[in-house]
Structures are given as structure tokens and as C-alpha cells.
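Exercise 7. Given the encoded structure of a 110-residue chain, write a plausible sequence.
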């Protein structure tokens, strides 16, 4: 199988790289993701920014790409896709502004 897909992380770095610190790190990342997940539909970013989402959708938005980096960043990456950071998507005001910028660039909103 290794010839087909290449070396695994263990093949490359050895068992010593995957010690208790690695386990603690992966557990922390999992717990952070779980804690950040919406608890109900009303907490979903799209639901909280619905009034801005509808015009963006009407302007052709079909895909939102969320990148895992710090800070706020938004960019229209095609006529149907918007790129935002996790920070932007998590904040209703920032996310609404990002969605509105998509609709404006697409000519849907005056």
C-alpha cells in the first residue's frame, strides 16, 4: 500500500513523533472544534446572517470557502464563490458584510 499512496506520517517521522504531546494536541484541536460548533440551527452563521445571505445567493453565491487563519479576510474568488476566514464567518456583522460585498460585486445590490 505504501508504494501506491506513499509513506505515512509514521514512516516519515517515526513512532517517537506521535507521543503524548501529539495526543494532547489532537485532543485539544478536536475539543476546540466541538466547542465552536453551533448548538442549534439558529446559531448557524448562515442563519444569523440570513438577510445578507439571500441577496448573495440571488447574485449567484453557491459556495463559501472558510479558511482557518487568524484575522478577518474576505475575497470573492469566482462568480459563485466567496472566501472568508473563520473569524469573519463566526462574527455575524463581519459575515453579513462579506456576503453583502459578494452581492454588490455581482451587481445584485445597489
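Solution.
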Amino acid at each position: 500500500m505504501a508504494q501506491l499512496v506513499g509513506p505515512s506520517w509514521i514512516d516519515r517521522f517515526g513512532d517517537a513523533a506521535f507521543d503524548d504531546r501529539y495526543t494532547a494536541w489532537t485532543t485539544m484541536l478536536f475539543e476546540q472544534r466541538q466547542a465552536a460548533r453551533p448548538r442549534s440551527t439558529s446559531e448557524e452563521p448562515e442563519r444569523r446572517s440570513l438577510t445578507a445571505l439571500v441577496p448573495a445567493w440571488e447574485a449567484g453565491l453557491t459556495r463559501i470557502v472558510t479558511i482557518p487563519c487568524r484575522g478577518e479576510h474576505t475575497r470573492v474568488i469566482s462568480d459563485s464563490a466567496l472566501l472568508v476566514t473563520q473569524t469573519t464567518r463566526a462574527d455575524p456583522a463581519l459575515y453579513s458584510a462579506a456576503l453583502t460585498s459578494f452581492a454588490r460585486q455581482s451587481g445584485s445590490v445597489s
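Remark. Residues 89 and 95 are 5 Å apart (CA to CA). Students should compare their own answers with the one above.
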